[in-house]
Structure formats: C-alpha cells, structure tokens
Fold:
Amino acid sequence: MSSHREAPEISKDPVADNTDVYAFVSPDKPDTVTLIANFIPLEEPAGGPNFFEFGDDVLYEIHIDNDADAHADITYQFQFKSELRNPDTFLYNTGQILSLDSPNWNARQFYSVTRVNEDGRSAKIGDNIPCPPCRIGPRSTPNYPTLAEAAVHTLHSGEVVFAGQRAEGFYVDLGAVFDLADLRPFQNLHLIPTPAAPGVNGTKGFNVHTIAIQIPKTTLTANSKNPTNVNDSRSVIGVWATASRQRAIVFGAGESPNWSTGPWVQVSRLGNPLFNEVIVPLGKKDFWNTLTPSHDSEFLQYVQHPELAKLIPILYPGVFPHLAGLTAARADLVAILLTGLPSGIISGFQNYTGTSYADMLRLNMAIAPSSNPNINGILGGDLAGFPNGRRVFDDTVTIELRAVAGVTFPLVDHSYTPDAAASVVTDGVTPADLSIPYLDVFPYLGVPNEGYAHTHDS
Amino acid sequence: MAKKSRLTTAQTVSTPSPVAATPAESTGVLSRRKLVTGATIGAAALAVAVGAFGGVSGAEVFGAKSAAAGKTNLTAPLMVYILDAPTGDLRFLYNAKELVIHDPALVAQLAKVVQ
Structure:
C-alpha cells in the first residue's frame, strides 16, 4: 500500500486504486521474473455480505519497458467479469466453498489476460480464468490455501498468473507517519515529543487484491535472450502498473445495468513505491495518475528538492543538521527514482535506463536472487533488493526515509557527510509485524487474512 | 519505428455545416420534430464522422426521415455529448472509441433544447 489513497480522486475509487507494484527475479525460478500489481487498499477481511472484487469496468495493466525509452514495449491487460449464479439470495455463498467451481459459491469472478506488443498487436493469452473466493472463515472457506493454490494458472504462452485476494504485504506505521511524520522509535525527538515506542504496523490484518504474473525472462528482453550481463542495458526492464476506466459511465435506471463507453482513460498509476504518495504535491496527484512515465520530467523538481527532506530537520530539530544545510538538487534521488543508477556508482550494479526521467521500477534481471536477503535492499548491501526492482518484503519505507534523509547523497557528492540519524531512521515496522507470512512460491504474498479471525490486533 | 498509441484516441473531423440554422429554429425551444429536422441539416457531416466507427451511417443514426428509420447497425450504446459548446465540437463515444466532429451550427441547435 505504498500508494494507497494517495491522490484525492483515486481515494474515492478503491477498485482502481493501484496500491503496490513489485518486480523481482523469482527466487525459486530464477529464469523468470514475477510482476505484481495490487489494488483495493485497506481491505477489511470481514467484508461481507458483498466481499471485495476487482472492477468489471476497470482495465488493469502491467507495463514493461525493455528498451529504455520510458514507453511500454509489452503490456499485460487484465479484465474481469463477475458472475452471479443465484440472484435470489443475499448470500455470497450458500454452503462451504471447497473448490473453484463449488455449487455453493454464488458471487464469482473470472478474468482474461491479453498481451499487447509495442506495435499495438494484441493477443488474448488467457480467458475465463477463475479468481479464488475471498477468505471468509472456517465454515465458508475451510482449507483456504488449497483454494488459493488452485487459482494459480499456467497459460499456454508460458506465463503463470494469479488474480485474487491476498494478505497485504506492505508494512508501515501508517498512523504515525501521517501524523506530522512521526516515527515512533524516535518520537521523543519530534518537535511535538512523546516517549519513544515501537512501530505499529497499520496494515496488519488487512487484505488486498493482487494481480500477479510470472514471465520467462526471454519473453521480456528486447533481444529475447536470457540476460546474464549485469552491465548490459538490455538486462534492465522498467515496470509500472495502471488502472483505466472508460470515458463515460451511465447509471442505469431501475433494473437496467450501468454501462460504460468511450476510450480508456488512465486513473491510477504506480511505479516506485511512495512516489505519488509523498513526492508529488496534492494539487498535482490526480494529474500525475493520468500520465505515462515518459511525462515525469514535469515532476523533476519535486524529486530534486523533496518537501519531506525540508520537513525532517524541522520536525526533528537538532537531529539532522547536515540535511538542513543540503540545498543542492538531489541527484541521488533522481537516479534512484527517475533514471536508474548507472554503472560505477555501486560496485556490481546498474539499472540505468538513460536520461529520460520516468518513474518506473527498474529491475536488472541479470542479478540473481539473494540467498540471504536483506530487507533494506541495496542500502543493506543486497543488490537483489530495492531499488533493483522491488521484492514483496523490501522495507521501502525505511529505505526511502533514509535516502531522503541524505544517506544516499554521498553517491553523487563524496564531500557530503550524512547525519548519523540518517542511517538509522525508520518507522520501526518490519515483516515480523505482519499477521500472515510471505510465501516462498508464486504469488509470494501470503494467503488472505480471514474475516472470521480478525487478526488486526493479534 | 514509431510506436502506435495502444489506447484509442479521439479523432477530430472538421466538417462545416452545409446549411445554417433557419430563423424559425433559432427562436424559442425546439420541438422534437424541429430538433430532428435541424439534425438532418448536419446529417451529411455526421455521416462522415459516424461512419468512422465502422459501417454505421449518419442517416441510420439520425434516421428520423430516412427509410432506415428505427434500424441501426449499432451493437452497443452510442453517447454523444457537447463538452464546451462555444468550440462547436460534438463528441461521440462508442465502445472504446471517441470521435470529435466540428459542427458549430448543429451544436447551437442542440444547445437550444436545454435553454
């Protein structure tokens, strides 16, 4: 949920609200890449009687740029269709749901997958694929992990797909960070101090709706070859996700259904975590959501001089004196978020896509998954982690906090010494604060929190 | 190779109105019959534009006085709207397409319906 309710208009449209995007070399199948796009923020598991679904009138897309021009070369489109088997009951299920074709399951959803190439040619590579049910409780959805596994499908074209409810994998002290950038472990140093305390995961116990696709690397590269050279630009892909609605919706009168018409209009976009959330000002967040990454030069100033970097020394007086004096344009943040890091900055790593400014996750597919992952990614010495793509467990809140606080500026200016606090600042939340663990296999996000169990405070 | 836009974009077709609105139609609220009559003034222009959606003729869409009245090839709802009347643009939404035609006289006539 690094980009949840991040803009005024999308906050009113949860089914089209892109909350997180992940891109990583699959740890158990390193000849493939897994791309994940999540939607519908802060999904309460006890969501009955109408449990959460994707929008039938939303076009969900995952885009891949494989030639470093900030334009999509490959797009996977996902479209959904709900089916109500018995309109004469108020129930989502009339008995136990033990399989994806259970006669007891009333409100179901199916989806199609279409692959669109750079030249506009498209091919539907999957159709009528069933989503799993939402995880209700021990009576309605016993043996849920088995149900969820059955919803993982291998397409004839080689991709593996899943679309449905999962446990929220993004962790953050949501209640504190938007309370004037409070960080509980350091709140004794805040301008409005209270005793220091451990971080509280604000997303604990919530679910999300996930679109996940696992793709052979050779399908993604511009030359259709397996990327093995870290320094080769063709080893790097840019990834982002979008949601679109048709230009007009007409609400039907009486029992007439609603209908949509017109060209698809993009209403949500996400590449790097937290970009629209904390970099783009409120007055431009809705506009940013309508743009493709190739237009992100319009937002360069907000990355070069992030508002958060100015606020941190004010809100934590005396703790960040070096950051307070740092007025130069933040070329380090521009590299991390808008261009990728070129060779020579970090030994053994590059994810550079050229001088075009574009907010995309940049994944160097030639870097193998780490055998001992560090949730702080490259800042923690793990080249397989964020900002080299993004894994589901990467602590992007801590990474970006520390980067904004100045810990990465020496990469571009060796004369700068970060504040000591910059390398330890954190919201205090880690994967240990999740109620459902990640999986070691596709789709890597855990099975959903159960509505009956109410795991928010457990 | 230049990349095609994958999403359909609005096309603009500018066609001048062949006949200006008559004085009788420019005063007061138009009745439905007069509105339909006024619409056929621009039918030639519309036929070109609507045909861009694929085989649907303007006469069939606005077929009040044509032999094809009541029959269309439309397989989905067709929405026509005027976003900014002074521009004289009519916007058509059909499936995933949007078409813009420029017909200030027709827009003026249609606007009278709600004034």
In short: The two ends of chain A are 20 Å apart (CA to CA). Chain A has a mean pLDDT of 96. The longest strand of chain A covers residues 236-250.
